[in-house]
Amino acid sequence: MRIGVPREIKDHEYRVGITPAGVKALVNARHKVYIEKGAGIGSSISDSTFKFAGANIIKSAKEVYSVADMIMKVKEPLPEEYPLLRENQILYTFLHLASNRKLTQALINRKVIAIGYETIQIKNGTLPLLTPMSEIAGKMSIQIGASYLQKDKGGRGILLGGVPGVKPGTIVILGGGVSGINAAKIAAGLGAGVIILDINLERLAYLDDIFQGRIITLMSNSENIENFVVNADLLVGAVLIPGARAPVLVKKELVSRMKPGSVIVDISVDQGGCIETCKPTTHSNPIFTVKDVIHYCVTNIPAAVSRTSTFALTNTTLPYALKIANNGFLKAVTSDEALGRGINVFKGRITHPAVAESFGMKYTPPKELI
């Protein structure tokens, strides 16, 4: 199979869809890898390093898309990339379609085979390809929030860990999944007061056990959200429903009651966001203010630590890429249920129920099209 890796063009997206080790593994399995010139520079991977691993370096994205049977990316295609996609080409990347109708329609129209990293799901509910980026985004949400709480950045002037004799900052985390738990690890390590809200009692019990009383766990309901969000110095949105739009848990009215200079970091913004006042931002222009509350809503947070993110991502995407390349798309998705759940668009149809529900469109099970 011919695998193409274009350079990412999203704002300040420094990650690349594969590492040299990933290239070598595919080449050793007798596949060909085509990488756009300069694609790895943002992750400190040179063209020569990719070439030494066995990749073919070509000049433009157009050439990559034209030659490849499967495109491996990091982020969803942007509008200028839509025309490069062709019928029955496999697009293997983060998609987050539930919050992007324009992209969904483009993939339908182009009749590509769209596999979303974020919806590949094993039987126990784990999302193995989303996990490493969620870990990174969770950890970064606290250091980002801590920075914007500084007075020189417009914040309240709060040191999250406090000092002896002074109360530490309060962090409220909505969602106790992968992002939430990693945010809590960093927050608790700083010495902040940490409150996690989640709807799953088993998850709350697990969090309570591993943190051994260093954080407060609460059932996520409207009363608890209202009571604790208004007192947060830093509010982290870390809610995830696989493939679906994030539910809005914090309304604009509640944000207006938060303390001036407090900070919101909504990790779930790439799935629409769980805070009503949030809207997607970029690394170039990461924040905006609503009712004197700073909002950080960058949709590709892990891009800021691109080398770590690229290597962590390839560790999880490569085994499935090899399965697709070695066996072909149909055999790969029929023999691996987790990979089959990753199919979002196929033969011009939406093949993930949560995506279809988000837009009120028809859902077609992949098995009906295979």
TrEMBL record:
<feature type="binding site">
    <location>
        <position position="220"/>
    </location>
    <ligand>
        <name>NAD(+)</name>
    </ligand>
</feature>
<dbReference type="GO" id="GO:0000166">
    <property type="term" value="F:nucleotide binding"/>
</dbReference>
<feature type="binding site">
    <location>
        <position position="75"/>
    </location>
    <ligand>
        <name>substrate</name>
    </ligand>
</feature>
<dbReference type="InterPro" id="IPR007698">
    <property type="entry name" value="AlaDH/PNT_NAD(H)-bd"/>
</dbReference>
<feature type="binding site">
    <location>
        <begin position="239"/>
        <end position="240"/>
    </location>
    <ligand>
        <name>NAD(+)</name>
    </ligand>
</feature>
<comment type="similarity">
    <text>Belongs to the AlaDH/PNT family.</text>
</comment>
<feature type="binding site">
    <location>
        <begin position="267"/>
        <end position="270"/>
    </location>
    <ligand>
        <name>NAD(+)</name>
    </ligand>
</feature>
<feature type="domain" description="Alanine dehydrogenase/pyridine nucleotide transhydrogenase NAD(H)-binding">
    <location>
        <begin position="149"/>
        <end position="297"/>
    </location>
</feature>
<feature type="domain" description="Alanine dehydrogenase/pyridine nucleotide transhydrogenase N-terminal">
    <location>
        <begin position="4"/>
        <end position="137"/>
    </location>
</feature>
<feature type="binding site">
    <location>
        <position position="134"/>
    </location>
    <ligand>
        <name>NAD(+)</name>
    </ligand>
</feature>
<feature type="active site" description="Proton donor/acceptor">
    <location>
        <position position="96"/>
    </location>
</feature>
<dbReference type="GO" id="GO:0000286">
    <property type="term" value="F:alanine dehydrogenase activity"/>
</dbReference>
<dbReference type="Pfam" id="PF01262">
    <property type="entry name" value="AlaDh_PNT_C"/>
</dbReference>
<dbReference type="GO" id="GO:0005886">
    <property type="term" value="C:plasma membrane"/>
</dbReference>
<feature type="binding site">
    <location>
        <position position="15"/>
    </location>
    <ligand>
        <name>substrate</name>
    </ligand>
</feature>
<dbReference type="InterPro" id="IPR008141">
    <property type="entry name" value="Ala_DH"/>
</dbReference>
<dbReference type="InterPro" id="IPR036291">
    <property type="entry name" value="NAD(P)-bd_dom_sf"/>
</dbReference>
<protein>
    <recommendedName>
        <fullName>Alanine dehydrogenase</fullName>
        <ecNumber>1.4.1.1</ecNumber>
    </recommendedName>
</protein>
<keyword id="KW-0547">Nucleotide-binding</keyword>
<feature type="active site" description="Proton donor/acceptor">
    <location>
        <position position="270"/>
    </location>
</feature>
<feature type="binding site">
    <location>
        <position position="203"/>
    </location>
    <ligand>
        <name>NAD(+)</name>
    </ligand>
</feature>
<keyword id="KW-0560">Oxidoreductase</keyword>
<keyword id="KW-0520">NAD</keyword>
<feature type="binding site">
    <location>
        <position position="198"/>
    </location>
    <ligand>
        <name>NAD(+)</name>
    </ligand>
</feature>
<dbReference type="GO" id="GO:0042853">
    <property type="term" value="P:L-alanine catabolic process"/>
</dbReference>
<dbReference type="InterPro" id="IPR007886">
    <property type="entry name" value="AlaDH/PNT_N"/>
</dbReference>
<dbReference type="Pfam" id="PF05222">
    <property type="entry name" value="AlaDh_PNT_N"/>
</dbReference>
